[in-house]
Amino acid sequence: MFAAARAELHAPIQEIALLANAVNLLVQTESEDGGFHAPSIWEFFPEVFLFEGTPFAINRVMLVRFVAVIALILVFWLGTRKMKVVPGRFQSLVEMGLDVVRVNIGEDLLGKKDAKRFLPILTTIFFMVLFMNLTGIIPFLNLAGTAVIGVPLVLAVISYVTFIYAGIKKSPGKFFKNSLFPAGVPWPVYIIVTPIEFISTFIIRPVTLTLRLLMNMIVGHLLLVLFFSATQFFLFTLSGWWSVLSAGSFAFGFAFTLFEILVAVLQAYVFTLLTAVYIQLAVAEEH
User: Fold this and answer.
1) Is 0.70 topped by the overall pTM?
2) With CB atoms 3.0 to 4.6 Å apart as the test, which of 64, 110, 211, 260 could cross-link to 12 if both were Cys?
């Protein structure tokens, strides 16, 4: 119990420390001699270019999110509009993606009955996070839709509401009691156990879901911009023999781009997997 709470806190704390180090390295003031200007955290707060001053204001981050959602809808529409018993390549690819969520996450953790119930929300979370993560490495977009807290927070709240709903549906009137007062614990120990269970179950879970995804996408973006900005600086600003260094920074940028693809997929998988784990815990027999 205590180990689980520490584990959930440890991952986002590490990511916050990594972000702090990255920001400390990357945020630099402009030099008088036209020196290198590293990316800053303010890149995640671009200027509004449509509907400024209204609740519908659109900046670059919102545009990236719209593009990701449109691409997601288009992929599934093209992959499912002419379903065949013997699928073509594109239909097979879409079905493989769906099977990752249905089998590897849903059925393995929840069983077939509960997996079927919660499959729509698990599938939506997985592909929404995946597509918004991948915009971070697409040219001309170059920013993950999940790199600003709005989307990670909304998805974490949805996950939070879902597992609470699942627990209440499974054990009306007993879910909160069983969550806060685990069976088999001596009554005096509840003075310590109950606050820990409350914090770990009802506070830490949505916080860690939000921070884990957000910090990975922020740090990934800052590192990619750093490497490719350095490449441009060495090649076009300093020129001369300094341009040799541009090959190294470009190589690092390319390597981290491949790594970011892995991170994008992994973070979508982890977010969905943890949502399924929380649902499974909520519908367990002891609840």
Assistant:
1) yes
2) 211
DSSP letters, 95-116, are HHHHHIIIIIIIIHHHHHHHHH
Parse the chain into domains and list their residue ranges.
Answer: 2-13+58-282
Angle of CA points 146, 17, 214, to nearest 5°: 10
Split at pLDDT 50, 70, 90, the class of 25 is very low
280 in Cβ contact with 109 (< 8 Å)? yes
What is d(CA 197, CA 90) in angstroms, rounded to the nearest whole number?
A: 45
Contacts of 203 (CB under 8 A, 6+ apart): none
Vertex 190, ends 184 and 194: CA angle to 5°? 105
Distance CA 271, CA 164 (A): 17
CB-based contact 267:216 (threshold 8 Å): yes
What span, in angstroms and rounded, lies between the C-alpha atoms of 156 and 104?
21
Distant-in-sequence, close-in-space partners of 139: CB < 8 Å, separation ≥ 6: none
Question: Over the stretch 114-150, which tens digit does the pLDDT of each residue have?
Answer: 999 999 999 999 999 999 999 999 988 999 999 999 9
Q: Which residue has the tokens 């919102």?
A: 62
